[in-house]
Amino acid sequence: MFIKISGKNIERTQLLLVVGWLILIVSLFYDPISTYLTQPDRLFGPSSGDLCFQFQGECQPFITYGLGPRIFWGMIIPLIIISLLTFGHELWRSVCPLSFLSQIPRKLGIQRKYIIHKNSWLGRNHYYLQFALLFIGLNIRLLLINSDRLLLGLFLLLTIFCAIIVGFLWDGKTFCNYFCPFACVEYIFSEPSGVFQLETDTKKVLPMSQSACRKWKKMVAKLVIVLVVNPIVLISIQKHPIGLKLSNQIEH
Predict the structure, then answer these.
(1) Within 72-148, where are the H helices?
(2) 151 with 36, same domain?
(3) Do 143 and 86 belong to one domain?
(4) Domain check: are 239 and 155 in the same one?
(5) Which range, of 21-30, 154-163, 223-232, averages the lowest pLDDT?
């Protein structure tokens, strides 16, 4: 669906998302706007007329807070997951800000262009590495950066730095394919394909068309979900005359 979009429009969208992401990171270190919006009786502040709220029998005063972490964890991350479920990995991989930032060394002409071979250790074990990085990142979020603006900003800057270093050392989208921990999330939410991902992203010669294969994958996935979640359906099918007829045909 998105293959027909020109490369210039994709780069413009990526650049727009990168600028928005950098503004969000800056707001994690300095954000006078959130202080104003989260005051009592403001847009994102408490509407209570009291100057404090009861907590464990004590009156705690209302304090302002930064909107950056809530925007990142409560809006940006869910929107990315929804895009994966709806349009598959094709859309997100085309506009991912980290993918754009990792290609800065290539655009500046300073990329080392090392190639990762499929038989190398990283080529054979990159799934384990990505899952390990995802596990570490989730634990860091729960223990340190979930609501701490400063640590979240430093964590995002470190992630950008790592993406640029990988893009400097290796050729192509090595960070996206071999290092990015979010690739594990893509595999889970975008397989076998997104809801509106109708066109293929490969042109390999197969005995069956890629679209037909994906239709079969969707049918098999839905069938497995139905049979696992609701086994009563399987029993009812077996008792139905049509189901008995089909089972007899399969046996013969």
Answers:
(1) 77-87, 89-95, 97-102, 104-108, 121-140
(2) yes
(3) yes
(4) no
(5) 223-232
Q: Other C-beta atoms within 10 Å of 67: how many?
A: 20
Please indicate, yes or no, whether residues 122 and 224 belong to a single structural domain of this protein: no
The tally of domains found in the chain comes to 2
Indicate if 112 and 234 belong to the same structural domain. no
Q: Which of 102-106, 109-113, 239-243 has the lowest mean pLDDT?
A: 239-243
∠ CA 86-92-95, nearest 5°, is 135
Residues 181 and 139 in one domain: yes
Q: Give dist(CA 146, CA 66) in Å, integer.
A: 12
Helix (H) or strand (E) holding 50: none
Residue 237: predicted pLDDT: 42
Residue 82 tokens read as 């929804």
The domain containing residue 228 runs over which residues?
A: 210-251
Q: Which of 83, 94, 41, 109 is nearest to 197 (CA)?
A: 83
User: Rounded distance, CA 248 to CA 79, Å?
Assistant: 47
The pLDDT of 212-222, averaged and rounded, is 49
Number of helices (H), then strands (E), belonging to the chain: the values are 14, 2
Residue 186 and residue 220 in one domain: no
Q: Tell me the whole-structure pTM to 2 decimals.
A: 0.71
